[in-house]
Amino acid sequence: MSAYAPRDIKKYRYNTHRLKQVLHDEMKLFIAEESADTVEPSQLKKGKQKAKAKKGKDSA
Question: With a cut of 70, which residues of the chain have pLDDT below it?
Answer without folding.
Answer: 1-4, 37-60
